Structures are given as C-alpha cells and as structure tokens.
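In response to reviewer comment 3 from the previous cycle, which asked for concrete evidence that the modeling workflow produces usable outputs, we include below a single protein chain processed end to end. The sequence was submitted unchanged, and the resulting structure tokens are shown without manual editing.
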Amino acid sequence: MRRFTYKATDPKAKKDVKGVIQAETERAAGKLLVEQGLAPISIEEEKEGGLFSKLQNKVTTKDKIVFTRQFATLIGAGLPLAGALRTLSEQTQNKAMRAVIDEVLADVESGKSLTDACSKHPDVFDKVYLALLSAGEMSGTLDISLKRLATQQEKDASVLSKIRSALTNPLITLAVIIAVIIFLMLEVVPQVKDLYESLGEELPALTAVMVAGASFLINQWWVILIIIAGLVWFFMWFRKTDTGIRAAANVKLNVPLFKGLFLRLYMGRFARTMQNLLSTGVAMLDSMKISAEAMNNVVLQEQIDKAEKKVQAGRPLSEALKEADYILPLVPQMASIGEESGKIDEMLGKAAQVYEDEVDEQVARISQMIEPIMMVLLAVMAGGIIGAILFPIYSLVNNVG
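The workflow returned the following structure tokens.
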C-alpha cells in the first residue's frame, strides 16, 4: 500500500482538512476520500524521508499517552468516534502518529470497529491496548478503558524513566574512566617509553605491558574499531534470536543487584494489566495470556502459560501462580484474597501498587550503590595506570641519585 497526503474539503464542517491515506493508487485514494464524504482538492504520494526524518517522526511513548488521554476525554465528552479521531489528527504534531490516526479514522469510517482498525498498527497498539479497546467497545465503556490505558502507560513510562535516570550517572562515570585511560595511554605512556630508551634502561614489566597496549592503540586503532563494530553487530543480531531473547530474560531474572528490581517491575506490570483487563470484562484465561505477553520476558511468560493451563483445568488462580518459580508471593496471596471476596481485580491492583512503590525504592537504592562502585573502579584503574607511569620514573630518579 502506498501513502498519499491529501487536502480536501469537508462539506459538513465547511472547512478544508489535511491528512494521510493509504491506497494502491492515487485514483483509489481519491475514491476513499469521496466515500468518507470529503471532496479532494489535491492528492500527492508521500515521499520517504531520510533516516533523521524517520527517527524524528517515530511514534514515541509520550505520543501514545497523549493520544490515549485526549481520546478518552473526547469520547467521555460525547463526541462520536470518527469526530474524536478527526480532532486528534488535527491536534497531533507528530507526523507518524497523525498518519496512524488518519488510517484508523479511514478504517472506522469504512465500517470497521476501532479495535480492528487499531490492530493494523501493532507497533503502536499492543495486545493489551487492543484487549482493553475491545472490552470497552463491547461494554459501552470505551472512555473508561482508554483512561485505564493512559494511566497504565503513564505508570510504565514513569518506571522506565526512573530506571534510565538511575543508570545515567554510572554510564557517564564509565565514559570518564575510558576517556582517562585512553588519554594516559596515548599521551603519557609513550613519553615514559622515550625517556627509558634515551637512558638505555629496561622498562619494568607492568610499564612494558602498558607501552605495548599504547603502541597497539596508536598503530592498530582500526583493528579495535573493527572488533567493536563486530561485537556490536553480533550483539544486535544475537538479541533478536530465540536463544538471545531467552538469555536476556534469564539475565534480568538472575543477575545480582538488578534481579530484585526486574522481578518487582514484572510483577507490578503483570498485576496491573490483569487488574485492568479483568475489570473491563475480559475473561480470566485471555487476561492471563495477554498479561503474560505484556511482561515482555519469555521465561515469565512460559510460567504464566503453565499457570493458565492449570486455571483452565479448574484450579484457582492463586494456587496456579503460587507454584511458579519467579512469581513473588504477594501476587498469589492477593489473588487468593480476591477470590474469597469476589474482588480479584481490586486485590491485584493493590499488589501492583505495592510493587510499583518497591520499584521506586529499588531504583533509588541501586543508584546509590552503583555510584561509589564506579568511583572505586575509576580510582583503581586510573591509579594502576598512573602507578605504572610514576613508579619507573621514581626508579630512574633513585638510580641516578
């Protein structure tokens, strides 16, 4: 399908509108616009932008949150579905998001349900999003479903933002360490070598190793770049393979210092998604399947799938989850209370809130622990290099003395 930008007159609104539409040909695009009640003024095929343009116009998490929140407000205010989407298209600044909204609008106006229209854009609307949309459409509570979606997106974005912020300072410190080492290797170590050669003295073992490393860095820098590029390529390729995906999932669940954070992050996401799905009328088994995918961890997803089969066989959710290896105790405990009280969605929501609060505490604690570790690492590595440089100089001074 080709993409066309258009300008058309809307007879009902008595104004000109602009947007993007997908069609096989320009003529087909014009026909679609006429079917939507618009009078085409101009239709041009959308030109592909460069890499920078694509990155600039990528649909971000913030774009999705703003769209969902505004959509909920417009639907709650009584606007018809097509009218709300058209208003959102006109207000959206991001071209990629506007194009998605325009395509959803075109599908809705052609008779498709909102869920079916959004399902054509899986990179923007994931399975959780589609499940809540479907439940909202079927129950007539679309605005409530959209509000829940926006709230969940905001919580996820907030957690990820805090994690990125906690890792920023350590990464900056690591970059400083590398820069200091490269400076000493390139500028100082060669001078020590020249000094020893001018005096006819033999370099100490540690300094000789440093000199060899500096020489390799200066003369064979291209080899280092090739190795780094090769490692980056291999990592990018490996992380997309089944083995790489499973390895990354296991690392997150077992790596020291971070495993507690990731477990709480996943448990909070699972419980919150289950709460939202169950509260909007999605069946238990469907809720479990979608919530497992929402965690984005293949190991945990397999455990939830096993629990789902036990629930399908007639066992309570709390018992099925209790037998899973990586499920933290609070989730099955709260599920058990919910099963007894008939408020399982509410109890899972409380479990989610506990884990979301604990994630905030874990992020702050890890940030406080990493910074001194990185500073010690900087001191040890820089001190070792400086020692390898100063020690031979002091030895020369003593020998001369």
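Residues 4 and 21 are 5 Å apart (CA to CA). We consider this sufficient to address the reviewer's concern, and the full set will be provided in the supplementary archive.
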